[in-house]
């Protein structure tokens, strides 16, 4: 088979191409034949067992027992593996939520300190207090992070416009802690997205994992997505 991609004579897209995460959940579905694979294997195992006994070849019967039991054992094992994978995803999500909750507290305190000196735009800073619970859902996690980033930028602008605020140690320390937590969230997002990527790949693995995923109603998961404003800023000129 010839090379499907030729790096020496590529089709160049001079205008470039932006990419986006598709926020769509895809359920796992199996065909009628795929659903019958475990049953077919078990039937073959039963036939081998009977044949081995009839012709007095117990090795064939032993192989038949393995073929009979393996599909049932493998399906149970995969179900357990999926449960453990879900726990890893939840643990990674919990790390993100923990850091975001800390950011909520720090930004809330920083906003109060800034408000003592200047009037802050309440609409820009958003109602940070509503995020203090830390109960972020899979759907809202990216949105909450975007709102916190928006509040951070608003505070930074306010502080930059008033030099006397920059000299206050408490405000400077709070913003430094916020910057540190942003980096920790980025690292936690990577772990979360790796776990989600593994999940999305494994549930479609043919045949047994796909069969179990479809039977249990498993679906793909959406990775942590950067907000549009952040993506636009990433294209800007910084120096």
UniProtKB/TrEMBL annotation:
TM region(s), chain numbering: 40-73
Membrane topology label: Single-pass membrane protein
Coiled-coil zones: 75-102
Keywords annotated in UniProt: Coiled coil, Membrane, Transmembrane, Transmembrane helix
Predominant location category: membrane
Cellular compartments per GO CC: membrane
Domain of life according to the entry: Bacteria
Transmembrane as UniProt keyword: yes
Subcellular localization, as worded in the UniProt entry: Membrane
Keyword Transmembrane helix attributed: yes
Stated family: Belongs to the LemA family.
This protein's name: LemA family protein
């Amino acid at each position: 088979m010839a090379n499907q991609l030729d790096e020496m004579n590529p089709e160049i897209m001079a205008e470039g191409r932006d990419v986006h995460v598709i926020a769509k959940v895809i359920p796992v579905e199996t065909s009628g034949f795929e659903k019958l694979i475990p049953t077919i294997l078990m039937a073959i195992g039963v036939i081998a067992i009977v044949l081995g006994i009839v012709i007095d070849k117990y090795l064939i019967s032993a192989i038949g027992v393995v073929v009979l039991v393996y599909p049932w054992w493998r399906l149970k094992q995969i179900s357990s593996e999926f449960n453990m994978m879900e726990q890893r995803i939840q643990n990674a999500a919990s790390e993100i939520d923990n850091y975001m909750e800390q950011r909520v507290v720090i930004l809330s305190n920083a906003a109060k300190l800034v408000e003592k000196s200047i009037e802050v735009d309440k609409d820009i800073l958003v109602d940070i207090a509503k995020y203090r619970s830390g109960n972020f859902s899979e759907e809202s996690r990216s949105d909450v992070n975007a709102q916190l980033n928006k509040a951070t930028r608003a505070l930074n602008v306010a502080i930059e416009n008033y030099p006397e605020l920059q000299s206050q140690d408490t405000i400077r320390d709070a913003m430094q802690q916020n910057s540190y937590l942003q980096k920790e969230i980025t690292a936690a997002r990577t772990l979360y997205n790796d776990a989600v990527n593994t999940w999305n790949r494994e549930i479609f693995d043919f045949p047994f994992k796909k069969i179990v995923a479809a039977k249990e109603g498993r679906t793909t998961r959406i990775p942590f997505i950067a907000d549009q404003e952040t993506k636009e800023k990433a294209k800007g000129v910084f120096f």
